[in-house]
Amino acid sequence: MRLLGVLGGMGWSATAEYYRRLNEGVDARLGGLHSARVLIHSVDFQPIDDAENAGDWDAMAEVLVDAAKGLQAGGAEGFLLAANTMHAVADRIEESVDIPFLHIAKATASRVEASHQRKVGLVATATTMAGDFYTTPFEQRGIDVILPEEGERPEVDRIIYEELVHGVIKDSSRRELRAIMRGMADRGAECVVLAGTEIGLLIDEDDCPVPMHDTTAIHVDRALDWMLTEG
């Protein structure tokens, strides 16, 4: 089993979910007393969020590049970034080290492509919804991306950063996201991508009127394949 580096802490609730899912996945695939070989670098999220709000991608990249180098120095044979939004600087992180980087959007776009769905609804932070760093892997595969209505996007962002990042789960927020996903389905979305690593803590398949792709679950599956069956 390869040693996987997890660059986490953005927020901690998502990193905890990655750790749980990775270990459950190894247990399911190998049985016995096997558990995941994981090296976690959990950063302080506040400076990264400050950099995001200021549009200072260099400051964000500096913190995450340093963490990625630490994972490599610690023996990680490959690594992932346990946050969708911070993939805004994924290219710089990947270029800073000599070990494989498992990209969440590429893994998710491949899963959607394999499902033969050509139009997806995207639920994510404001930064992810506003940029092309996340949608490009979908567009390269001929998949169209539908976003929530412009007036709905701040509420999605608020739910993620003010609630889910802190592990807070509210039924009122679940109802809000249900309505937003129904709206995207009504506008032609054949599936919905939960492009926030914490959103799966709040939403499950019964909440969505079309098939749903949880990026955390997909990313973990990709990591398990890499750890256990490749190379």
From TrEMBL:
The keyword Isomerase applies. Keywords: Isomerase. InterPro entries: Asp/Glu/hydantoin_racemase, Asp/Glu_race, Asp_race. GO terms for molecular function: amino-acid racemase activity. Belongs to the aspartate/glutamate racemases family. This is Aspartate/glutamate racemase family protein. It comes from Janibacter limosus. The lineage of its organism: Bacteria, Bacillati, Actinomycetota, Actinomycetes, Micrococcales.
